[in-house]
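hiii so um. not sure if this is the right channel but i have a protein structure encoded as tokens and i wanna go backwards to a sequence. like what aa goes where. can anyone help
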């Protein structure tokens, strides 16, 4: 394998022309999506516009920030079934696996990123708002760097980046499909998308999915289901109302990861379940969302948009885990035998959020200006608790032992742990923002400013109020048609909502400098972004052992800098190639003042956990346009990562580095009439690697072994 491939140069796949033609009704514009423009541009994975960076439909080449869009063609053709699966197609992103979504967030450029749904937050300091299904998703837009000027509320404005999941909308024509997918690990997965016009002015759409599966990990299995209804009302020629609902439910036997050092050295069974599965309840995540969007166009140049949402999350995590940090029966004579500890983490979130903005296009000051003025409000209540078994001496009480080299699963989970450590947080965010996007010939300027008033009350502990201004400025310059240079400066701001400490916390902030080159050359079939950046995060909470378990002190600083490239090339109609590569240098730059005789904290200079220095993906897709095999398309790809740290500090017990790896995937699809059959495979080379995994100590999880799936779809 070449060095470039090992470092992650990426080529993705392209939508088959026959598939795109057959599915064109699935992706038709809804009434509320704006004016329909018919052009001669071929179908593919390229998206020329995106709304997540600016809340306006702006050509990506004019946005002074790195933005990538994963459209429905890419998601469908690569058979991506989760947000984590889809996000490997974007440089500099470390996805959160569904199994660890309750304890981890996806990372962009080394820092945590928030997941938004249709431009509105679904509060959580992890990835519990990760959509259970991508069946009802039209596209995923990834904005890199702070986005605090036009987004906020809930968990705060994103410091490192934003992942905006955009849902499908009702259409004015009857269309839909039913499908079923099955394969490795006893996967059974029926799903459907049905759109029905109810009258000349009303349309309804429902997407739904159910999946049940076993796992390559012993004892771990689960199911998920999701239903997403929506109604679209055309209230007039210039007025639309969209109502959306979503109910997700995920349930699985909680997996807590393996001790990193022993797993990678082969001392223990790589697929062992490190806990007490007998009687252990399944962890369950339930998300309920009700959203509305009202849009009125006063004229071609003036538009009002009002959106609102109520979000409810119910999460009950029942886990059992092992850890070198909390002791072993005989670490010398029985080094692979561990005590098992139970844990119960219930979490409840209620959030009401709304945003209103007015968009005005106006020629003034010698240029064309697109002015956006808006305000939003968010009220969130979050209750979280942690239940452990503790002795009077303050130590964990085990419920049994397990030899991970030769696991025997006869330990009972027992009653729910009784020791409680919990808190209730209430957040109220009120904000106003203004943004101007101006064009002066080849020069495109962008500037925005946001004022945020945040009240944070932790019952019995914190009562804080923050007032903060966030600016963002940037510019792109067309050096020739379809080729532009860009540069931007942005800031981030959010409350330190995951902070556990005795002192009143400061808000977390971030600053970003970014610049590079953007391409949009349809005649050459070439699109992409090449960027270099420096991103700094301040007031980071770091561990404070003197205050006790999970306590923190807020003096840290982290810095990420690097280079990224996301390229799409479609040289001929039958072939498409996309590429991404990321070099990410993310490390701790400030920590707790060291104790003598040290002069520098041992954390300073440590690489941030989970972040590979090199990463990327390479693949290609070809489609047969003529002849007896017309309707056939096929592709393959490689995803690669360099080594990653499991934990901070990297010298933590059992911690260290997870080696890099590269895995191969492939897909083939045949479209005949109203039917499509798709075959896909993951990790076709049978690579036996590990990924970092977020739990309570340095642990890892085995990557998915060689797997295969078959899907049959019928359209109507």
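sure thing!! here u go:
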């Amino acid at each position: 394998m070449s060095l470039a491939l090992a470092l992650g140069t990426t080529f993705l796949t392209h939508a088959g022309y026959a598939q795109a033609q057959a599915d064109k009704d699935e992706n038709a514009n809804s009434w509320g999506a704006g004016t329909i423009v018919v052009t001669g541009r071929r179908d593919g994975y390229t998206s020329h516009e995106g709304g997540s960076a600016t809340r306006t439909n702006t050509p990506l080449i004019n946005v002074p920030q790195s933005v990538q869009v994963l459209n429905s063609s890419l998601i469908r053709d690569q058979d991506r079934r989760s947000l984590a699966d889809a996000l490997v197609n974007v440089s500099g992103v470390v996805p959160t696996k569904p199994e660890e979504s309750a304890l981890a967030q996806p990372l962009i450029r080394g820092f945590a990123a928030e997941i938004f749904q249709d431009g509105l937050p679904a509060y959580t300091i992890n990835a519990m708002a990760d959509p259970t299904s991508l069946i009802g998703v039209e596209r995923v837009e990834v904005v890199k760097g702070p986005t605090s000027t036009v987004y906020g509320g809930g968990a705060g404005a994103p410091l490192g980046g934003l992942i905006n999941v955009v849902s499908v909308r009702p259409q004015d024509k009857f269309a839909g499909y039913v499908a079923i997918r099955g394969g490795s690990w006893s996967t059974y997965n029926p799903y459907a998308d049905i759109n029905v016009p109810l009258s000349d002015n009303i349309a309804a759409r429902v997407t739904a999915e159910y999946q049940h599966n076993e796992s390559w990990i012993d004892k771990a299995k689960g199911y998920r289901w999701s239903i997403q209804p929506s109604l679209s009302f055309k209230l007039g020629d210039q007025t639309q109302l969209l109502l959306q609902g979503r109910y997700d439910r995920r349930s699985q036997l909680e997996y807590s990861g393996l001790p990193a050092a022993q797993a990678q050295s082969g001392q223990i069974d790589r697929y062992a379940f490190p806990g007490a599965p007998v009687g252990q309840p399944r962890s369950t995540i339930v998300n309920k969302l009700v959203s509305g969007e009202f849009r009125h166009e006063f004229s071609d140049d003036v538009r009002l948009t009002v959106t609102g949402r109520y979000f409810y999350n119910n999460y009950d995590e029942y886990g059992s885990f092992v850890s070198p940090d909390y002791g072993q029966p005989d670490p010398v004579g029985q080094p692979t035998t561990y005590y098992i500890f139970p844990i119960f983490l219930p979490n409840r979130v209620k959030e009401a959020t709304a945003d209103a903005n007015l968009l005005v296009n106006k020629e003034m000051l010698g240029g064309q200006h697109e002015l956006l003025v808006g305000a939003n409000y968010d009220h969130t209540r979050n209750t979280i608790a942690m239940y452990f078994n503790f002795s009077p001496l303050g130590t964990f009480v085990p419920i049994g032992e397990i030899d991970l080299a030769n696991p025997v699963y006869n330990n009972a989970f027992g009653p729910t742990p009784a020791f409680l450590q919990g808190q209730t947080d209430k957040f109220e965010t009120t904000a106003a923002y203004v943004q101007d996007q101006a064009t002066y010939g080849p020069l495109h300027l962008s500037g925005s400013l946001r004022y945020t008033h945040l009240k944070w009350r932790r019952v019995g502990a914190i009562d804080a109020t923050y007032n903060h201004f966030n600016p963002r400025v940037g510019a792109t310059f067309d050096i020739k048609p379809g080729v532009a240079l860009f540069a931007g400066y942005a800031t981030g701001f959010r409350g330190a909502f995951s902070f556990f400490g005795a002192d009143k916390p400061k808000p977390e902030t971030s600053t970003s400098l970014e610049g590079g080159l953007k391409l949009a050359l349809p005649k050459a079939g070439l699109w992409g972004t090449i960027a270099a950046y420096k991103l700094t995060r301040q007031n980071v909470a770091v561990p404070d052992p003197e205050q006790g378990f999970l306590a923190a002190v807020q003096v840290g600083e982290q810095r990420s800098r690097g280079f990224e490239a996301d390229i799409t090339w479609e040289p001929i109609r039958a072939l498409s190639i996309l590429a991404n590569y990321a070099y990410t240098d993310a490390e701790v730059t400030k920590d707790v003042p060291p104790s003598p005789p040290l002069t520098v904290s041992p954390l300073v200079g440590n690489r941030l956990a989970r972040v590979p220095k090199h990463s990327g993906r390479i693949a290609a897709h070809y489609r047969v346009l003529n002849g007896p095999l017309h309707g056939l398309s096929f592709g393959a790809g490689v995803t690669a990562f360099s080594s990653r740290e499991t934990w901070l500090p990297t010298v933590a017990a059992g911690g260290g580095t997870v080696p890099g790896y590269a895995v191969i995937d492939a897909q083939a699809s045949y479209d005949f009439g109203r039917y499509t059959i798709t075959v896909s495979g993951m990790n076709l080379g049978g690579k036996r690697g590990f990924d970092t995994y977020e739990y309570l100590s340095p642990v890892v999880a085995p990557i998915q072994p060689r797997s295969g799936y078959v899907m049959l779809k019928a359209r109507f």
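oh and Confidence is low (pLDDT under 50) at residues 1-42.
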